[in-house]
Write a structure and sequence with these properties.
- There is one protein chain.
- By secondary structure, the chain is an all-beta fold.
- 0% of the residues lie in helices and 53% in strands.
- It contains no helices and 19 strands.
- Strands 3, 5, 6 and 7 form a four-stranded antiparallel β-sheet that branches. Strands 11-10-13-14 form a four-stranded antiparallel β-sheet, with no helix packed on it. The chain has a three-stranded antiparallel β-sheet with strand order 1-2-4, with no helix packed on it.
- The chain is rod-shaped and about 105 Å long.
Length: 202
């Protein structure tokens, strides 16, 4: 009975080649250029930590008869789905809900716009300060997928008046929502501060 490949199974960045018939023991090789050239043969039927791309695989038996896996086999890079929720102005929860492709286990790194870095193996980041974020998903083999400019819906910026005293030419205002800290401007005198209190108004 001639050598055959029963199937080629993809799991993350791993391909398992299942050969049958022919004359064991089997050897296996892989090509990343469409079958123009193949790697040296190996006795293991598992190819691990493969970069994203399309591969052609084949098995050889003891008589050097070979049989290719039908078609190409595709390895995908790590890809994650995540949620982004604004807890309060400038504070965010980001949670990875699923990751496909790549090879588990995964590591997750979150960096905010202030350069603060948070790292864990769960993909759950709670009460993280910042306005925008970069999420890096790294698999067991060290392959990265990077998501940049992640922003969450923030509360709209609103301004209110504490007090205006025309006799003393003073005013006090406050802001809510948006992303603190706030800067307050008074147009006529072309002044600004971060307290919202103005004196000697014109």
């Amino acid at each position: 009975i001639p050598l055959r490949i029963q199937n080629c199974v993809v799991s993350g960045s791993r391909i398992t080649v299942n050969a049958r018939d022919g004359l064991p023991p089997y050897r296996y090789s892989i090509s990343s250029d469409g079958g123009s050239s193949f790697s040296p043969t190996q006795t293991s039927n598992i190819f691990e930590c493969l970069p994203a791309g399309d591969y052609v695989l084949r098995a050889l038996d003891a008589c050097n008869n070979f049989f290719p896996c039908q078609g190409t086999v595709t390895i995908l890079p790590p890809s994650s789905r995540f949620t982004c929720t604004s807890v309060s102005p400038g504070v965010t929860n980001i949670r990875v809900t699923s990751t496909t492709g790549g090879e588990a286990p995964f590591n997750f790194t979150l960096e905010n716009n202030n350069g603060q870095v948070f790292n864990n193996s769960t993909g759950i980041f709670n009460n993280i300060p910042g306005c925008s974020y970069t999420l890096t998903v790294t698999d067991k083999c060290g392959k990265d997928t990077v998501y940049t400019d992640i922003t969450c819906i923030q509360t709209n910026l609103k301004i209110g008046i504490n007090c205006i005293n025309f006799n003393n030419r003073t005013a006090s205002v406050f802001a809510t929502g948006g992303v603190p800290p706030y800067t307050y401007f008074e147009d006529l005198s072309n002044t600004s501060n971060n307290t919202g209190n103005f004196i000697n108004l014109v």
